[in-house]
Amino acid sequence: MRCPFLREEQVKSCRAVPFRKPLARTALKGTDERCSSPEHVRCPAAPPSREAHPAPSRCPFLLESLVQFCAASPLPQYVPWSESPDLRCGHDGHRFCELYLAVAGVGGRGPACARPSDDRIVDVDGVPMPAWLFYAPNHLWLDVGDDGLAHVGIDAFVTRLVGSIDRLTFLTLKGTVRPAVVLTVHGVDLTLAFATPLPLIAVNTRLRANLDRLASDPYGLGWLFEARVGDARAAEGDPLFTGLLEGDASRAWMAREIGGAARFVHEQIAPRSPLGTLLADGGALAPGALRHLDRDQVLCLFAHLFPLPLAARRPS
Description:
Blueprint: E1 6-14, E2 23-24, H1 25-28, H2 49-52, E3 62-70, E4 79-80, H3 98-104, E5 121-124, E6 127-130, E7 134-135, E8 140-144, E9 149-154, H4 156-162, E10 167-170, E11 175-177, E12 180-185, E13 188-193, E14 198-203, H5 212-216, E15 225-228, H6 247-269, H7 295-305
Helix pairs in contact: 6-7
C-alpha cells in the first residue's frame, strides 16, 4: 500500500543552462513554451546549438523525465522516479513517516490495510496498546506490513515507567542481526534486544536528536528499526513470531506486567528505601517512577522487567 500523498509528475528542464530547474508539464500548459516546438531557435539560452542542430522540431537540450514528490510537504521537492523497495512512500512504511502522520492525524495510525486486522488502540491500565502489533516479553513491539516491511520499537509501558530518556544508542545498524538498543535512563543503561535476527535496512537515527518522540509517539515516530522480512506472517509457525504475543493474550500479559512491576517495587525495593514503604495501598506505579529510585534499585527493576532474550546473552 503506497502513501496516499505520493504524487508523480512529468517535468521538463534545460541542459543548456548552468542551473537546471525542472518545471512540471501540467504547469506549462497554456503557456508559450517554445522548447518542444520549432520556436526553440529563438531561445537565447543556447545560441551555439543552432549550427549543429539547424532546425529540429524540438530543442535538443530539452530534457523530460518522470519524478515523484510528496503532496504533504509544504515545499515539495522533485526526486527521480524510482521503484526501489526501500522507498518509504511506495509501500506501507509511509505509516511511520512524519509528514504523513502530521497530515493524516489519528486516522493515519493503524495496521496495513491489505490485511484484515484489529485497528483499535486499547488502553490497559493507562498503557495504550495498538491491537495489530506483536509484543515481546521485554516490551519491544513488531509491526509487519502487507509487503513484508517490518518495524520494531519499544512499547508505552517502557516510556511510562522511565519518563525521560537521557541517551539512545543503537547496537545494531545493518545486516541480518538481532535488533538491539541501549536506553540510558538516569545514568543507568537499559539494553533491549529482539530475540529473532532480522535483515535490517534502516534505524531511526533521528531519534538521537529528538528523544521526546520515544515517549510521545512510541508506536509511530518513535520506531527504532526497519527490516525487510518478506511475507513472513503468511507462513504458519514462522520463527519470526516465536514467543511474541498478540490480541487478547498481549493485553492480559500487559496487565500482569503492570501489576507485577508495582508489586516488585512495593515488596523488593520500597522496604529498603530510606523514605520507608511507598504506595502502601498497593497502587500502580506513577509515570516516571524511576526518578524516585537510586541506581541500584533501578538496575534491580530493569533486570526484573526487561530480561535479555536467551539468544542475545553473552556466555558467562
